[in-house]
Amino acid sequence: MTPQDHRQLPVFVYGTLRPGQCNHDLFLRGRTTAVRPARLHGAVLYEGPGYPYAVADPAGDVLGEIITLAPADYRHVLAALDVLENHMPGDPASLYDRVEREVRLTGSGEAVRAWVYLAADRVARRLRASGTTVPGGSWPGPRLT
Q1: How far apart are the C-alpha atoms of 16 and 50, rounded to whole Å?
Q2: What averages of pLDDT result for each successive group of 10 residues across the chain (145 residues)?
Q3: Global pTM value
Q4: DSSP β-bridge partners for residue 2
Q5: Per-residue 3-state assignment (H helix, E strand, C coil) for 81-134
Q6: Is residue 46 a contact partner of residue 127, using CB atoms and an 8 Å limit?
Q7: Contact at 8 Å (CB) between 76 and 87?
Q8: Of 3.40.50.620, 3.40.1190.20, 3.10.490.10, 3.40.50.10860, which CATH number belongs to 7-133?
Q9: C-alpha distances in Å from residue 40, one per residue of 6, 7, 29, 76, 83
């Protein structure tokens, strides 16, 4: 983990880590203190093989949730999420990059800094060239967030 990783930012989730999805129970249930609906501006969702990819795009919005991890579990859970998301800093085989972004809470519009897993550059290039976007920016389909 880099020094910036020690800041305990919440995590913005938009795919299989969302409440009700398979990886939420495996990685997050009982290890969070808050789950709040939110929107990430500046990204578009693309279909993946059973999960989505968020790709930076100034015109897009992605719907999801801000997950606040329990302080006692923070480092362990974040490290597990990095493995799940195949986030390997500096490795060209990474599928996702974990980056800090501003996310807006649904309803209040309050800005929150959060970790977001965006498609790594090589994946993003392929998706922009030939990927299928997720309509409405919500995966696995319309959600009331």
Answers
A1: 9
A2: 66 96 94 97 95 96 97 96 94 94 96 98 96 93 46
A3: 0.91
A4: none
A5: HHHHCCCCCCCCCCCEEEEEEEEEECCCCCEEEEEEEEECHHHHHHHHHHCCEC
A6: yes
A7: no
A8: 3.10.490.10
A9: 22, 20, 23, 25, 22
